[in-house]
Every structure is written in C-alpha cells, then in structure tokens.
C-alpha cells in the first residue's frame, strides 16, 4: 500500500484498488462528471456508484471521456432494494450498465440484504458473473448472519462486503469473519460523514504524522486491510484523500484509533433498515 494504484487480489483472482472514489449524493451531470474526472486525473483507479445514487450516466461519461483506459478503471455499482429478485435484478443490471455506457462492470453488489429476496438476487449476480458481464460480485451491508444464510445456497461466495466502517464503528467481529472467509471488507462513509474529525485522538495523530484527521482515518482503514472509498466533489479534498501512501501508522497508534469505537452508526442498521 505504497501507491494510489495499489490493489488487493479478491478471492477469484481479480485485483481491486485499495482506494476508490465514493459518489453517494453526488449529483447527476456536471458534478458527477467533474468529481470522477478529477479523481482519475489524481490517480484514482476505482469509482463506486449505485442505481440509488442516480448518477451512473455522469460517472460513466467521465470514465468514457477520460484518457485513462477502461481496463485500468475498476467500476462498482449496486442493485437497489426495490429491484431485488432474480429477473428484476437482471433487468436492473442491464439498466445500470446501459446508463454507465460500459460493456462490463467490475463489481456488482447487492445494496442491502432485503429479507426473502437477497438469495434470489444473489442467484442473478452469479449468472451475471458466469456469463462474463461482471468481473466480481459481492454484497453491501451484510452482517455475519446474512453471509451465513447466503452460504447455505450460493454457488459462488461473495468477493466483497461493503459496510459502514470507521473509528466509531470498527466492526471487529465482522472484519475478522470476512478475513477468515476471504471476503474483502470495504468501508463506506469511512470519514463518518464529517463527524468527529476533531476528536482529540485524531487531531493528535494528525499533528504527529503531519497529516489531516481524514488522512489518518483512511490510512487506518488500509492498515486494517479494508478498502476505502471516501466521497468528495472538491478537487483539493479528492487529492488530499489520496495522499495517504507516504506514511504508516504505528501499531500503538492503530490501537488508539481502534479504542475510539462506540458501535455508533451514521447510517441504517442492516437488520432494521426501512427502504
């Protein structure tokens, strides 16, 4: 993890960059295009979107217009809850692929574990993977019990689990489980939606390493072997978030950040979401 383009090998052999640009709440059109264009210019090689975000067209256009070749960019999108089910997912995927304007998707995720539907949704993802439309498949917001339930019927194990993960929600048990199962954990809202960046632990470490609190958190993610996808639409912040490959947190400093855990969520709990 010494370069922005460094990647981790998923359990099917596909390489996924450790750092990506998140695009949640990035507006369709110029805002999405500019954010992705800036990220690619800075050196990001992974872009995360979703059907829910309603910005797949802008994301896709920026990728197509970029001087960076398509093969170098790792693109993730997700099937939304109301489109889950076998046939529905296949239709939703084709709609996302069409909006992105891409021949294939690098990673397709189930956005949330909709009860009584996510197994059939996963079966559709397996078909998309086997047919070559996606290079990797995974889930988002799955707890251990969801993954265990999926294991009962799946032919292919998820390659990625994208969850809320940050210093106030370290999810140690889930992280350990996914590492044992060779399911790559990925952090959404790694910067806690801007909350707690003035926490004394983070500000002290920022001063020690001459970095920002955000950079300390993102480096902490990487050293826990967790992919991270901070979101920003500001060019300076996009560049700042990527400037995390020239230092390393000590073991003791990693433990200090771990100790911030409060099991606090800024998003919905995967067992109680209402959408």
TrEMBL record:
Residues annotated as the enzyme's active site: 53
Residues noted as binding substrate in the record, renumbered to the chain: 111
GO molecular function: oxidoreductase activity, acting on the CH-OH group of donors, NAD or NADP as acceptor
Domain of life where this protein originates: Bacteria
Site (Lowers pKa of active site Tyr): 78
Keyword list, A-Z: NADP, Oxidoreductase
InterPro entries: AKR (IPR020471), AKR5G (IPR044500), Aldo/ket_reductase_CS (IPR018170), NAD(P)_OxRdtase_dom_sf (IPR036812), NADP_OxRdtase_dom (IPR023210)
PROSITE patterns: ALDOKETO_REDUCTASE_1, ALDOKETO_REDUCTASE_2, ALDOKETO_REDUCTASE_3
Domain NADP-dependent oxidoreductase: 19-261
Family according to the record: Belongs to the aldo/keto reductase family.
Protein name, UniProt field: Aldo/keto reductase
Organism of derivation: Thermoflavimicrobium daqui
Origin organism lineage: Bacteria, Bacillati, Bacillota, Bacilli, Bacillales
């Amino acid at each position: 993890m010494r370069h922005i383009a460094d990647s981790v090998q998923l359990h099917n052999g596909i390489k996924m960059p450790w750092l990506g640009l998140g695009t949640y709440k990035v507006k369709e059109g110029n805002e999405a295009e500019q954010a992705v264009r800036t990220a690619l210019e800075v050196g990001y090689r992974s872009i995360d979107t979703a059907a829910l975000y309603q910005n797949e067209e802008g994301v896709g256009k920026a990728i197509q217009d970029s001087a960076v070749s398509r093969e170098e960019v790792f693109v993730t999108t997700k099937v939304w809850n109301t489109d889950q089910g076998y046939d529905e997912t296949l239709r939703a995927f084709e709609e996302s692929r069409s909006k992105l304007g891409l021949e294939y998707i690098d990673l397709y995720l189930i956005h949330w574990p909709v009860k009584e539907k996510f197994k059939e949704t996963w079966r559709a993802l397996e078909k998309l993977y086997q047919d070559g439309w996606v290079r990797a498949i995974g889930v988002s917001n799955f707890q251990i019990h969801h993954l265990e339930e999926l294991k009962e019927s799946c032919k292919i194990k998820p390659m990625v689990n994208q969850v809320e993960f940050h210093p106030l929600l370290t999810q140690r048990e889930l992280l350990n489980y996914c590492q044992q199962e060779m399911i790559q954990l990925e952090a959404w809202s790694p910067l806690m939606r801007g909350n707690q960046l003035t926490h004394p632990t983070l500000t002290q470490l920022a001063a020690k390493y001459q970095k920002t609190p955000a950079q300390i958190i993102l480096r902490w993610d990487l050293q826990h072997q967790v992919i991270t996808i901070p979101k920003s639409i500001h060019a300076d912040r996009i560049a700042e978030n990527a400037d995390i490959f020239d230092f390393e947190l000590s073991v003791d400093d990693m433990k200090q950040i771990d100790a911030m855990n409060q099991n606090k969520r800024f998003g919905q709990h995967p067992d109680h979401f209402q959408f």
